[in-house]
Write a structure and sequence with these properties.
Radius of gyration: 24 Å
CATH topology of one domain: Serine Threonine Protein Phosphatase 5, Tetratricopeptide repeat
CATH class of one domain: Mainly Alpha
Helix content: over 70%
Amino acid sequence: MQFLLPMRKIVLLFIWMLLAFPGNCQSWKVLYDSTEIYWNNDWGKCVSLLEEALPLAARDMSPNSKNYMVLMNDLGLAYLESGDYSKAKTLFVDLVELKKDLLGINSAEYAASLVNLAGIYQDLGELDKAETLYQEAIENYRVSLGDQHPDYATSVQHLGQLYESQARYTQAEALYLNAINIRKFAIGSFHPNYAGSLFSLGRLYRKTGNFEKSRIYFEEALSIYEKSYGQLHPNYTNATGELGVLMQSMGQYTLAEAYLSQTLNLRRNIYGNQHRQVGESLNNLANLYRVMGNYLKAERNYRQAERIFKNTLGDQNPDYATVLNNLGDFYVGVIEFEKARPYYQQALAIFQNTVGIQHPLYANALNNLASLNRKTGNFREAEELYLKTIATDESTLGKNHPAYATSLNNLAILYVATKRYDQAEELYLQSIQIKKATLGVNHPAYAKSVNNLALLYMTQEDYSKAEPLFLEAISNQLNQIKTIFPALSDKEREAFYNKYSAL
């Protein structure tokens, strides 16, 4: 599982603290101002300061005042960044109601809180609620600010990110293109927010296998970020990090290592050595080294990332669980199955306690544990876990998502191993249909499912069905080779060949 890059940006509502308050006000304001030191560096400290400040502020001002709502907003963001989704959701639900009563549903400030709350629902896997709130915010901005306003474009962008997470790629692409057009004329094509829309579209094209288009958008976003901020800025490092992931997907491992190493070094200069963003970069580099077969470097980077996440976020955070899950993947890759098991089990427990059992992260961990059981011959337990994974994917992502298709594919592999060929065939066919519709016929994941079905027919000695599928899978691989192979070094060509020969 590729560690994903940072949580999408939450809309922040900044209100100047214009009023002077007597008495205890100074205490809460000092506490609030102190969070500036720790913001983006120590979320636990921010939570502590804001939790202390909020009741003090309540004694000096009305809960309906804008200053009090600023405190609530920032505490909610701190909860979110520290992984306490339950408290964040409770706070933002209250804040939305306060703004609705005080400012009305046509207020742009109310819409900003709708976007924040939608983001929490999205992170918790409550995607229908998130979609409803994003759509309400978009309509609010359209009425209050117009459909050519930058804030309207931002809400459109967030809805696009939701659709992207659901593999509703056509809808996401349309929203991203809309945001790009609005921002180009409203703020200019050299503005960082315009680059943000380019960045999102680049990520979308990477996921759908349109690598060259993805590269164009990422590189344009990177250029704008560098001109706007220089290299020592989070947005610049996000872009270099995504380019590294893209190069890895394209098999260009030398370039991938260069981008990911640059991202790691820049983030160390920005945040210090023990920041979560540094942990993320170490994790992404570890993923690359694992694919390249450099297991010593991979394990070392995973271990460093694990320590950083545990120290900065605690051992009950989804990001910490993700690196544990990746360590499990690593040990499976080096055929140390019993070392992998406790990592998968711990990651699963953390996801259950943080984001809940109806979430894609939980489903992914279930899937990995199921595959481990299949590889170790525990077929009954593997089937039970695969079925739970499929049910979770269906309820959270829907039946038209590549992750759902992958889960079907994995259960089919189990059914082949247990000689339940008819059930396997049905699942492979469903998986192929979904991947074709969402990713296209040129995507490696599509070729993998086609190849698996061909192998099933070959096992059954149905060569007339197997042959055209093998030819289709080979054609896909040849297209990948034509696109990627010329730019690879000899070592990368060997790794690329090993990767695709495994299909």
